[in-house]
Amino acid sequence: MKKIIKVNINVDLFYNFFSELQIMEEVDLKSFRLLLGEKIKLRREELGLSQAALGARMGSKDKQMISRYETEGANPTAYNLVQLANSLEFSVQELLDYETKIK
């Protein structure tokens, strides 16, 4: 039987990791969260998904969580970040790449 372990790492750690590797341009943490929320919204709309539909793709996450990510900025756990990327048909790297524009 497969055992799933939920890792509770939030976007702050990803921000620090990518900043140290200098993969990202200089951006403060608040802007990082807002950019991630914007990218989630743009990609969701590109795929023609409602917030509720994206939440369902993520495994019963509610519409309010998706709305909060999009409007207040996203700070998901690592587990939710992977679920978001998969649900948006992106890799985590594509989701966090702010240089690449959504079509």
Structural description of this entry:
The protein has a single domain, classed as Orthogonal Bundle (434 Repressor (Amino-terminal Domain)). The protein is globular, with a radius of gyration of 13 Å. The longest helix has 18 residues, at 29-46. 24% of the residues are buried. The protein contains six helices and no strands. By secondary structure, it is mainly α. α2 (29-46) crosses α4 and α3 (51-57) packs across α4.
Question: Can you give me a brief rundown of this structure?
Answer:
With 103 residues, this protein is an all-alpha fold. The chain has one domain (11-96): lambda repressor-like DNA-binding domains (434 Repressor (Amino-terminal Domain)), CATH 1.10.260.40.
* Gross morphology: globular
Oligomer: single chain
Query: Structural class of the helices, strands and pairings?
Result: mainly alpha
Distance between the ends:
41 Å
How many separate helices? Answer: 6
CATH class division: Mainly Alpha
Mean pLDDT score = 79
The overall strand count is 0
Note the main sheet.
none
Radius of gyration: 13 Å
